[in-house]
């Protein structure tokens, strides 16, 4: 029987808790700013969909790793994270205990998080936000009309 109360176990549990907390806070902020109109609802939907996709891909990759099957490419996992799915990826890493010890992967993952958050901050400054809103409105009009 293994000892699950040692320092490493406590550290892993606190890492998982922190990961879940960070992802939840980000998603709550996205929902709040979407609700108050600071960011378009389409962006909140994109982040939610990408996060759900990330969870599914991580689950599939974990299953494949356990069963010796074809794996999901790391570049695919990073692309989904970069596209807004990093909160879901962080949740999946914690829930499935997957992709948490491969240092190169973790560094690349956090770089995608920084790039994604930086782009969101840049896009939603007043001037850039107005430009994005105009593009989204044009797309809605093209689809509807």
UniProtKB/TrEMBL annotation:
Which sequence ranges are marked TM in the entry? 17-33, 39-59, 105-124
Transmembrane as UniProt keyword = yes
Q: Does the keyword Transmembrane helix apply?
A: yes
Pfam families assigned to the protein according to its UniProt record, in alphabetical order: DUF1294
**Which keywords does this Swiss-Prot/TrEMBL entry list?**
Membrane, Transmembrane, Transmembrane helix
Q: What's the protein name? A: Uncharacterized membrane protein YsdA, DUF1294 family
Source species: Microbulbifer marinus
């Amino acid at each position: 029987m293994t000892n699950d109360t040692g320092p490493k176990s406590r550290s892993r549990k606190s890492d998982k808790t922190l990961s879940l907390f960070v992802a939840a806070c980000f998603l709550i902020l996205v929902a709040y700013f979407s609700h108050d109109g600071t960011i378009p609802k389409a962006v909140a939907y994109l982040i939610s969909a990408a996060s759900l996709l990330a969870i599914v891909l991580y689950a599939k990759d974990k299953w494949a790793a356990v069963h010796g099957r074809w794996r999901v490419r790391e570049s695919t996992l990073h692309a989904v994270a970069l596209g807004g799915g990093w909160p879901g990826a962080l949740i999946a890493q914690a829930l499935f205990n997957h992709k948490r010890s491969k240092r190169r992967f973790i560094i690349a993952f956090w770089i995608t998080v920084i790039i994604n958050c930086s782009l969101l901050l840049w896009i939603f400054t007043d001037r850039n936000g107005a430009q994005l809103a105009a593009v989204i409105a044009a797309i809605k009009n093209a689809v509807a009309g």
